[in-house]
Amino acid sequence: MNNRTSQPNVTGQSQAQKRSGLSWQAWLAGLIIGVVGTLVLVVLIGMPLAIGHRTDLPLEKLYGSLAVGLAVKTQAGNATNPLGQNGRALEAGRNAYIGMCAECHGANGDGKGIFGQQLYPPATDLRAEDTKEKSDAELFWIIKNGLSFAGMPGFAKQLDDQTIWALVSYTRSFGQGQSGAQAIPTPTAGQLALADPAGDAVHRGAAVYFAQACHECHGPVGNAPGELGLRGGGREAQEALRRGRQGMPAYNSSMITNAQMSDLVAYMNTFPGGGQRFGR
Distance between CA atoms of 8 and 21, rounded to whole angstroms? Predict the structure, then answer.
């Protein structure tokens, strides 16, 4: 009897298993290469196209809203505004809003400021239901931290928490029809021409003043109405600029150097009288 014919073909099975293993490995390697290749194409081709587009792709707005909502709700906490809607909070919030928010969100919060509709996505209408539905903590978190890829900057380094809460108060007033932004004088061609980084101290100071958008709150020569008006600089101005104050950001030496600060004060000392001292 031939015993060899009754024994299993171990060698044949082993080779089949090897071929099966190699086939599985080749399939996995191909899958990985395909995924990596797709990601490379997305980064090299898709991302530049996505950055440059100005219209909504299918479901993009829905996805963006869901992503923003999830990020804010999971990180904002549940704090309530300690300032409420009192007059001082609204005034401080309005002062900060005029200089730092109105250019995008508009004087009345409609999202149609000079730059608001040029952004993608456009600046938010602060009177809309989506804003009204957000909690105090959510509005505070957005103002303080900003929203990446949404054109919304964070103001954690420019504004203290009390001023951000004041901005929350003022933002609420848009939805309640209580707000009323003051009209700030716009610079004339002659006033803008005074700004010259290569000129003397006054001209250099004017360049800093307009570059830092001080005129958006205080007017081109400190001639804004009410508490926003200025009448000169001096030590009070330097201290207020470095520390900030309610409704106004703080400017550290990386934002305005000591030399620029000296030039800025020289320009502010040319302002006509009638306004408030800067440090008050």
Answer: 21
- Judged by DSSP in three states, 55 sits in coil
Judge whether 12 lies within some domain: no
* Residues ≥6 apart with Cβ < 8 Å to 43: none
DSSP 38: H
Same domain, 76 and 147: yes
Specify whether the CB–CB gap between 204 and 263 falls below 8 A: yes
Express each pLDDT in 155-204 by its tens digit. Answer: 998 889 999 999 999 999 887 766 556 678 889 999 999 999 999 999 99
Residue 149 shares a structural domain with residue 114: yes
Domain that holds residue 198: 189-268
Contact 256, 264 (CB under 8 A): yes
pLDDT tens track for 85-134: 888 888 889 888 987 888 889 888 888 887 888 777 888 899 988 888 88
34 inside domain:
no
Distance separating alpha carbons of residues 170 and 176, to the nearest angstrom: 10
> In sequence order, what DSSP letters do the residues of 189-209 get, joined into one string?
HHHHHT--TTS-HHHHHHHHH
Return the structure tokens found at 13: 């099975």
The answer to whether residues 276 and 237 touch, using CB atoms and an 8 Å cutoff, is no
Residue 276 falls inside a structural domain: no
pTM listed for this prediction: 0.64
Q: Which two tokens stand for residue 49?
A: 């196209």
